[in-house]
Amino acid sequence: MTVTREPALYLERIAGMIFDVDGVVTDTAALHAEAWKRTFDEFFERRAQEIGVECTPFDTSADYPRFVADRPRREGLRALLSSRGIALAERNGPSGADPDTMWSLAERKDRYFAEQLEAHGVRAYRDVIALLRDIQYRGVATAAVSAGRTCGRLLAASGMTQMFDVCIEGGRADRLRLPGKPDPTVFVEAARRLGVAPPDAVVVEDAPAGVEAGRRGGFGLVIGLDRTGTSAEGFLRSGADTVVGSLHDLMLVGQRAVAGMART
């Protein structure tokens, strides 16, 4: 178990909690990583055949958290391709002859993720279910945030829709022109929709970019969730106040809300 600093939630100081979806609420980070790997490795293979340049295959354990986790699709694409010295056009030109553009790779990744989701399904982590039930009973507002475009679908498939007051996903963030993490704007927008100030809210994240976003946004508490037990130091460098291996490790401190505040 990874625990650093004091893993306590002082409820008299907390009006809202904001949760990243993939890897914190739902067990889908591995599905995203595999969809990205298939997308990149197929592209690298085509590129090698066409121009004779070999690229290092996508590493789900190293490349996924470093370059694409918790980022909008095109930002993640751009970061990973840049690490391999590759730049692509945003979209096809008038001839439509080039199958590999930022847009086409992003769409391909979404298709592969949908296939993974259909094949494997999705579940919510038990620790987040227990925490959400407890904090909601105590009157804490909740928001779900995802860099992907499937936040609502994932929450519905895992039976978690009613556990959140606000859901902001990648597609909506794009329409609102909200920059991706580590920019804190999406978290600040979630807090605004909850009607709470960032200093009175908690961010729970499982990626360094998200942790950094929480810290840059001035949130009262930023929790790094290290389910694999390998990321504590990176989370602390990114600005986490505490790092836990499970949300069961968090201690809730403070007076319980009256029963009338409980939600169904």
TrEMBL record:
Sorted UniProt keywords: Hydrolase
Family matches, as SUPFAM superfamilies: HAD-like
Domain of life: Bacteria
Record GO terms (molecular function): sugar-phosphatase activity
Name of the molecule in the record: HAD-IA family hydrolase
Protein source organism: Phytoactinopolyspora halotolerans
